[in-house]
Design goal:
It is found in: Cell membrane. It comes from Diplocloster agilis. One of its GO terms (cellular component) is plasma membrane. Keywords: Cell membrane, Membrane, Transmembrane, Transmembrane helix, Transport. This protein has 15 helices and no strands. Helix 4 (65-95) packs parallel to helix 9, helix 4 (65-95) runs antiparallel to helix 12 and helix 9 (155-180) packs antiparallel against helix 12 (210-225). The chain is mainly alpha-helical. The two termini are 37 Å apart. The chain has one domain: MetI-like fold (Orthogonal Bundle), CATH 1.10.3720.10.
Length: 289
Amino acid sequence: MHKQISFGKKVIYLIPSVVLLLIFFVGPVVLSLYFSFTNMALTGSNASSLRFIGLENYKHMISDPTVKKAIINTLVFMVGSVAGQTLLGFGFAYMMRSCHKKVRKVVGSIIMIGWIMPEMVAAFCMSSLFHDSGTLNMILEGLGISGVSWLYTFPMAAVIIANVWRGTAFSMLAYQAALDDVPSDIEESSKLDGANLAKKIYYIILPTIKNTIMTNTMLITLMTLGSFGLIWIMTGGGPSGKTQTLPILMYIKAFKNSQLGYGVAISIISLVVGVIFGVFYIKAAGKED
């Protein structure tokens, strides 16, 4: 017979995990929150005299136009990336259900390249694609169409496309696993009832995999919210701050302008935005259940 483990022993087993969580997650968050209320800096007089300044950094953010612009850019980048990765990921996963195994392997491997590629390498690849003398303009010129300065004229669209290209494989894998669990008899019944493809997807497939959709959307949102390397390498937050998201602005203020306290305060705003979206997704998933 299996012996039941007492509640006290269960708590003891959890102590190492709780300690690690406090050290590597709660601790840095609390420390960052404290630094956001200070004048912490890398250079100048503030670097040698750390002082508690209360809400000064947050008051400055309210009147700082770059922060407002960064919040809007972050939301645009996040919505575009989430929508693109979700739709393409589901589309590829659904289309490959009826494909031959060899076709699935080839197409899946091609899509996976962007995801398994390091972020810096992916960013350089997409920079080469959208550069003034890059691959995309070479193709357009070959078709008799004049090229466009994509990273200057449409910088936000360029970084969204790059992020979607890189992250679609994650959504595709999640939806492939979910679609494999959809009962085939339900789909067959919908065909007999005369349901077309659109109705079958809307009334049968989507409600069946709703939990996967919600979880995948939440994960993509949080990953996109913290995206830094891709945008920094492709545009550096420019031109004129058009792709300057909260992580980019935080880096510029903290390490380029040496305003560490102000940069940390911006990171807290980014954390709050992530928490808001996380709570929204959790509540939405609860209502669905």
